[in-house]
Fold:
Amino acid sequence: MGETGGISGTLVWIILIVGLMGFMFWSQWRARKRMQQQIDELAEGQRVVTIGGIYGKLTQIDREAGMARLEIAPGVEIEIGLRAISHAVNTGPAQ
Structure:
C-alpha cells in the first residue's frame, strides 16, 4: 500500500495553520487600530460610557499617561484609563 498523504498532505496542513494564524493576527491588529482611533477622537466635554457601564462627561484627557477624568455626577469625578472607555454617547436627538 502506498502513502496516502505524503508531503502534499503535510503541506496543506502547514498552509492551513499559517493562514489561520495570519487571520488571527490580522483581526487583532484591526481591533487595536480601531480602538486607538476611538481614543484619538475623544474630546473633553464629550459624554462616554466605560466598559463597566459608567456614564459620564470627560473633563480631562492625558493621552501620554493614558488616563482621563470622568464627571459621573455634579462635583463627582473619577480617574480612569483611556482604554476603559467603551464608546462615546450620542447626545443629539434620536433619528
In short: The mean pLDDT is 88.
